[in-house]
């Protein structure tokens, strides 16, 4: 038996979330069973738990798009009982029972080894947000960005992706500008490694198709007008990694930056990223992300506190990362 958060739809169509005590026989099909140690509350999980957006379409569902734990049973020759593993994405917590649970059963193809020197708690403190930040930095560098290329902009700077992106870029020697709506957090952003902090209002309204050339690279967590303005203010041959939609899913831009300045827009998807890129990202996170960044950024809660925390996250009351000790 194990405990998990289970989402059900009531007769009025509203999502109900509660902890249930379940038999392992109810776990979905898969060739690896994992005893989960830590999961997190990502924005997507909060949407699923509160029912604020149709993240989950199949009920009952166990939410939790990521987890770290220890293999308990495996029919996959790559994993043995006792192996420490991480999972991000693959529809887990959306279409397949997820990580806000003491046990999960998944496809071994979805698992990556926990890197040496990283704890399960640290992995979930990084979470899908930090792993996505690493995918952004890897994509920019794969396309040629180097610290001497010029300044790099990070939008949505105080968010989960933004904070880790700043820390990773600064650690590698980039000069980072952080764009935020929370200028009161400038000291925190500077401590993470930002050389400069700008007000996100300078980027959030409709702007000219081509603007002053400022950035050699950018990590954009925001989308909409912000992403359009970021593209318009890239240097010649600048590189933009687009991963988020905090301002909006729209992209009200022109092709001018692409056809006149050779700007490249790189799409970042963490959910179905190939396994080799995941393993590379997690290995780099273990080597390059200072642990002090995580300590300052993380609040630990229990499975019993997760539903209330999801509502707080949606109301904008949470700063940094929420790590869930599922007590498996
Ligand atoms: P958070 O909610 O932690 O942070 C988002 C940040 O965006 C906020 O902290 C805020 O930063 C900024 N922001 C919020 N609302 C607005 C707005 N209206 N206009 C401009 N900026 C705004 O989210 P994450 O960092 O975890 O994720 C960032 C984005 O990336 C999200 O949209 C998320 O859905 C997406 N995502 C995508 C993934 C992928 O696979 N592509 C994986 C993970 C996340 P500040 O306070 O500094 O202004």
SSE map:
Elements: E1 2-9, E2 15-22, E3 32-40, H1 43-50, E4 66-74, E5 84-88, E6 103-106, E7 112-113, H2 120-142, E8 152-155, H3 160-171, E9 176-180, H4 186-192, E10 194-199, E11 215-220, H5 224-232, E12 234-242, H6 256-260, E13 264-267, H7 275-288, H8 291-295, E14 298-302, H9 306-314, E15 321-325
Parallel strand pairs: 8-9, 8-11, 9-10, 11-12, 12-13, 14-15
Antiparallel strand pairs: 1-2, 3-4, 3-6, 3-15, 4-5, 5-7
Helix pairs in contact: 1-9, 2-3, 2-7
Bound molecules: NADPH dihydro-nicotinamide-adenine-dinucleotide phosphate.
The site of NADPH dihydro-nicotinamide-adenine-dinucleotide phosphate has 28 residues, from helix 2 and helix 3.
Counting DSSP E segments of at least 2 residues, the number of strands comes to 15
The CATH topology annotation of the largest domain reads as Quinone Oxidoreductase, Chain A, domain 1
- Give the terminus-to-terminus CA distance: 11 Å
Total domain modules: 2
What small molecules does the structure contain? NADPH dihydro-nicotinamide-adenine-dinucleotide phosphate
Report the CATH superfamily of the largest domain. Answer: Medium-chain alcohol dehydrogenases, catalytic domain
Please tell me how large the radius of gyration is.
20 Å
Give the rounded overall mean pLDDT: 96
Percent of sequence in beta strands: 25-35%
InterPro entries: Acrylyl-CoA_reductase_AcuI, ADH-like_C, ADH-like_N, ER, GroES-like_sf, NAD(P)-bd_dom_sf, Zn-ADH-like_protein
Keywords: Oxidoreductase
Enzyme class: oxidoreductase
Pfam family, one: ADH_zinc_N
């Amino acid at each position: 038996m194990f405990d998990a958060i289970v989402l059900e739809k009531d007769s009025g169509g509203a999502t109900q979330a509660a902890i249930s005590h379940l038999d392992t026989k109810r776990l979905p099909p898969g060739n690896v069973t994992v005893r989960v140690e830590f999961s997190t509350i990502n924005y997507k999980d909060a949407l699923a738990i509160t029912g604020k957006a149709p993240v989950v379409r199949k009920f009952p569902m166990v939410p939790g798009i990521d987890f770290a734990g220890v293999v308990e049973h495996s029919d996959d020759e790559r994993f043995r009982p006792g192996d420490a593993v991480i999972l991000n994405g693959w529809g887990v917590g959306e279409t397949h029972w997820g990580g806000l649970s003491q046990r999960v059963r998944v496809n071994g193809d979805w698992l990556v080894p926990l890197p040496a020197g990283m704890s399960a708690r640290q992995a979930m403190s990084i979470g899908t947000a930090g792993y996505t930040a690493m995918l952004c930095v890897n994509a920019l560098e794969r396309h040629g960005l180097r610290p001497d290329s010029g300044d790099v902009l990070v939008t949505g700077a105080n968010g989960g992706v933004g904070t880790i992106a700043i820390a990773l870029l600064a650690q590698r020697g980039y000069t980072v500008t952080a764009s935020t709506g929370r200028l009161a957090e400038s000291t925190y952003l500077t401590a993470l490694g930002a050389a400069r902090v700008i007000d996100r209002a300078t980027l959030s309204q409709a702007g000219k198709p081509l603007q002053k050339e400022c950035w050699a690279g950018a990590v954009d967590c925001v989308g909409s007008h912000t992403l359009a303005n970021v593209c318009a203010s890239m240097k010649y041959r600048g590189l933009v990694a687009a991963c988020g939609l905090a301002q909006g899913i729209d992209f009200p831009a022109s092709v001018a930056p692409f056809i006149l300045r050779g700007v490249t827009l790189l799409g970042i998807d963490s959910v179905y990223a190939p396994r080799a890129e995941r393993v590379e990202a997690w290995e780099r996170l273990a080597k390059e992300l200072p642990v002090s960044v995580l300590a300052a950024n993380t609040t630990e809660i229990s499975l019993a506190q997760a539903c209330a925390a999801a509502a707080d996250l949606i109301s904008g009351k949470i700063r940094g990362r929420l790590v869930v000790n599922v007590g498996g």
